[in-house]
Amino acid sequence: MPEVSKMKKPDVKVVLLGDMNVGKTSLLHRYTERKFRDTISTVGGAFFLKQWGPYNISIWDTAGREQFHGLGSMYCRGAAAVILTYDVTNWQSLAELEERFLSLTDTANHDCIYAVVGNKADLIDPKAQMFQDSGGEPEDRTELEKDRTEPQVLSSCPTPPASPASPSGMILHKPVTHEDAVALYGRILRYKGLEEKSSLPAEKMCFETSAKTGYNVDTLFETLFDLVLPSILRKRNENQASPTVDLEECRGKRARTSCC
Amino acid sequence: MERDNHQGEAQGVHISEPPSESSLPADTLVTSLSLLGNHMFPDAGEKQEEINSTADKEEPAELQQSDVALKEHSVAEPHSNQLKRLETEEAETSVDLNNVSTQSTDREKEDTAMDNDQSDSGEFVVTMLAKAKLEEQGIGVKGRSSPLLEAGTQESPAFMSHRDEDVTAESWRQHRKHVFVLSEAGKPIYSRYGSEEALSSTMGVMMALVSFVQSGDNIIRSVYSEEHTVVFLQKGPLVLVCVSSSRQSEEQLRGELLYVYYQIVSMLTQASISRIFEHKKNYDLRRLLAGSEKILDGLLNLVDSDPSFLLAAVHCLPLACSLRDSLSQILQKAITPNLVFSILIAKNQLLTIVQEKTVIEDTRLEPADVHLLLNLIGASSAFQAGEIWTPICLPLFNPDCYFYAYISYLDPPECTVCLLLLSTDKEAFYAVAECKRKIEEAMAAQNSLSLIAKAQSYSVSQVGVSDLRHFMYKPFDVPDNYRQLTQFTSPEMEAPYTSEEEKMRLLDLYRFMHSRIHSTSRPLKLIYHVAERETLLAWVTSKFELYTCFSPLVTKACAITAITKLLRWIKKEEDRLFIRYPPKYSTTPNPSKSSRGGKSDQQDTTDNGYLSLL
């Protein structure tokens, strides 16, 4: 195998999950390209490699559509961090995280860290709206605005799960408060069987971002990258013990599941 | 015209006196049909006349010339092969190009047919739906009669997505081709224009027609009105309907509906669609297709603008034979277990395609599957960033299974050269991505990208025949291997076919020629067609299918000489115009996982079919 390709081997995996139209691709695009532009519904999953200091971090931007739901656990396998994304203006998108997406993370690393991210904060938070990203102004404001307020299909929404903040099924478009997100984070930890005291605190792992203005986007990714570094170092140590483990691991996976 | 008036009257009466609607002739199937018609098509008498007169201008010319064509002029009973009583009745109103001379008699017959219809006994289901329809009609007519609303909708298309179109507006009715997909329960799944919700009762009527005919142990295939052709296609639990005012044949329209069906299958697989509807008859399939509308929209735009779909053949980018071979070899060397197809695409055209050995022995990649792949790539600009890994089904290869497609552009940020690798292994992303690195390195070493960038389609002037404006040539014997992917070659469309309207006009002429050649009742081998602004010659033999377009002043003798020259030129250039010897590879002997299953007599990669072909 050529030397070049070996260097590119990712050290750690970060996965973006969340319902359709919450802005996963836009978040990643804002972070990598420093731009906000119209995106098209993602097909399957898109793989990006991000150089973070001496490390290669792979980021999987997954499709939120139900059509690709079956692939979620494959994208999550061995993930060191999962970014659970919702739309702050759409309560249902937060509920979907718990109903549809949380179970996909079963294949992630046991020490995987979770971030709960409310995107489109510019629509409810003046602070996020006024934020100026170094990358420049978003182009074509009005059109994007229109795209984002596209109606969600209410009929296809199941009733939201019981939670302290749970509204009646009717007002699913009410904004999501920070407390809702914090409460979800607590439930994620319980689902994973993790102690709240020994895990990362909710204040640190619940973000509100705006891919449109860039608000909190760098903070989100950089916080996560710093947090997964120990995981990288551990993996590197394991690799030193057996330098070929990466390849073998790949093969092993392939042999386990074959699907058509 | 008479029919049209009748429709207008019926509509007027129903709308002005809604309480008495049950006592009106809405009880008949035909009225419900005309109601569907009224919703779909405007009753614009003037426009109809225009269409008829242009048809009249063109057809006599064609008939005069038709003695050279090897066709019979017997006036066959129109649509005699059609299955349904309803259809034969409606067929009388169709503008049948084959039977210009019998038009007037048809119109006379039509009157009697209509009378008979009126006395037909009513059908309960249809009546109910006709009533539902009437309510919607009321809204529709209101919208149309208001000048304010009309002005609004005329301006709107500039900033409104066609998803938000007002389905009661005149502009919506005027679309050249509507496509609807619905479930057997009558639930809307897709509409090319307007939102599915707004069209749910229209689709309900369509489903009523389908089930009404089905209840008589029959299948509804098409409905003809003067301006429109309505074509139905039932595939498993899905019903696809096309309402077209283009002059395409029923078979062509049905072929297009089949592409729409295949694109849906490519996203969900046939097996899962059947499973879903077996489980829950009134499932809302839009849940699973949400986000894919743009892929279907893109497909329908391509179907209208790209003759590949009409010809069921793949258009590959002309490339020096040596360059294409070296690209194939690069693909052939970058393999991993369970990789089955490696495809290189530039400017949305095929550069080369390399297949796994056992796969090519069992089956071949169908052009339709390639079209669906090309459409998927074209419709998803998201592919331009990052490396995509997504399940995709190739419906003609196997409608029930997924391949896993790796899609990545090799020349960011331009994103014109795209690599597509198909594996049968869901987990193979990293292994397949590794193949891409190898391909990238090899291509960099050979400077392939800059050579590909120079490749372009050719001009018809290179053929050196002065009167020849454009052609499409589809050989059946390239290379001398019947397993080969069907291809065609065609030059760029040049003046006078530079505007979108002119391009479409030429394609429409080709579609007309194609429908004549492939007519199910009277297939033709050769047509010399003098149209208003050009002369066309279509010729099909056991070796090829050829469509040519000449300037209008060409003589028959000239055209025939030109075609001889053209065929000679293609023969000389065929190494450049077509993928001649597609190489194969064999991935590690692990045949059990290949979706087509196990041939164990695989040879080593170095000693495969490619070398033996050379």
Automatic annotation (TrEMBL), chain A:
GO cellular component, one term: Golgi apparatus
GO BP field: protein transport
PROSITE patterns with a match to the protein in the record: RAB
Ranges of Basic and acidic residues composition bias in the record: 138-150
UniProt superkingdom: Eukaryota
Chain segments carrying region Disordered: 130-170
Claim: Cell cycle is one of the keywords in the record: no
Signal peptide: none
Cell location: Cytoplasmic vesicle membrane; Cytoplasmic vesicle, Phagosome membrane; Golgi apparatus
EC number, UniProt record: 3.6.5.2
EC class: hydrolase
GO MF term set: G protein activity; GTP binding; metal ion binding
Pfam families hit by this protein: Ras
Keyword Transport in record: yes
Cofactor dependency: Mg(2+)
Catalyzed reaction equations: GTP + H2O = GDP + phosphate + H(+)
Topology term for the membrane: Lipid-anchor
UniProt name for this protein: Ras-related protein Rab-20
Family, as annotated: Belongs to the small GTPase superfamily. Rab family.
From TrEMBL, chain B:
Start and end residues of each FUZ/MON1/HPS1 third Longin domain: 468-574
Segments forming domain FUZ/MON1/HPS1 first Longin: 177-299
Disordered: region residues: 1-119, 582-614
UniProt gene name: mon1bb
Protein name stated in the entry: Vacuolar fusion protein MON1 homolog
GO cellular component: Mon1-Ccz1 complex
Similarity comment: family membership: Belongs to the MON1/SAND family.
Composition bias type Basic and acidic residues, residue spans: 44-60
Native source species: Betta splendens (Siamese fighting fish)
Pfam family of the protein (one): Fuz_longin_3
GO BP term, pick one: protein targeting to vacuole
The protein's role, per its UniProt record: Plays an important role in membrane trafficking through the secretory apparatus.
Superkingdom per UniProt: Eukaryota
Biased composition (Polar residues): 19-35, 95-104, 585-597, 603-614
